[in-house]
Amino acid sequence: MAELHRVDPRSLVPNPDNPRRTPVPPAMDDQLLASIKTIGIIQPPIVTDKDGTLIILAGNRRVAQAIRAELSDIDVLVAEPDEAHDLMRSVSENLIRASMNSVDIWRAIDTLEKQSWTEQAIADALTLPPRTVRRLKLLAHLHPPMLEVMAAGSMPNEDQLRTIVRNRRKPGRNTARRKDTMSPGSNSRVPWQSVGCPTALRSSMMT
């Protein structure tokens, strides 16, 4: 069973068999660095002890950015050596992680604000531009059917989103009438340029 230890990140040795051979864009490392400086390392790197040396199995980037952040020590999980699973663990760490979709991020932002987090604090902690946080908060004004479609992968651009929200806020507007064309199970993508067009909205509401 893995044990939690507190160690100097500089004492850790990078995994010589790290499956990530191609470096990530520098901007991604900068984002990780900013996150570590703001809220620390959320998930401890996994290491294994080989002849008294701690080898990183998963979390090379976290360790590297912890060093850049000049942290004196970090938490790591020391796992038992198991060559049959070490590579799979490392590949999974790099491959299986997936970004949250915009709707889920907005829901998380909404929850954080209810817990007294400010917009700027959320932007800093999530390493998001404040403008992105404000854009995501526009989703609060949309009907659930629209959110379901967006969560399934069809997302309007910022101009279309602002137009939809602007028309949604106007008295007498009821974009919910279009929800019959917005089914998450539909094979076709939503034509947001039409949904986000005031003229198209007026036409659809007159039919």
Structure description:
With 207 residues, the protein is of the alpha+beta class. It folds into two domains: 3-95, Conserved hypothetical protein from pyrococcus furiosus pfu- 392566-001, ParB domain (Alpha-Beta Complex); 102-206. It contains ten helices and four strands, in the order βαββαβαααααααα. β2 and β3 form a beta hairpin.
Topology (SSEs and partners):
Blueprint: E1 3-7, H1 26-39, E2 46-50, E3 53-58, H2 60-68, E4 74-79, H3 83-95, H4 102-114, H5 119-125, H6 130-137, H7 144-151, H8 158-169, H9 192-195, H10 198-206
Parallel strand pairs: 2-4
Antiparallel strand pairs: 1-4, 2-3
Helix pairs in contact: 1-2, 5-6
Spell out the helices and strands N to C: EHEEHEHHHHHHHH
Number of domains: 2
Helix count equals 10
Helix content: 40-55%
Largest sheet: 4 strands, mixed
Distance between the termini: 64 Å
Q: What are the low-pLDDT stretches, counting only 5+ consecutive residues below 50?
A: 174-182, 199-207
Instruction: Give the neighbour order of strands across the main sheet.
Output: 1-4-2-3
Structural class: alpha+beta
Beta-strand residue percentage: 5-15%
Coarse morphology: elongated
Strand element count: 4
In angstroms, what is the radius of gyration?
23 Å
Look at the structure and give the mean pLDDT: 76
Could you provide a short overview of the structure?
It contains ten helices and four strands; from the N terminus they run E-H-E-E-H-E-H-H-H-H-H-H-H-H.
List keywords for this structure.
207 residues, Conserved hypothetical protein from pyrococcus furiosus pfu- 392566-001, ParB domain, 10 helices
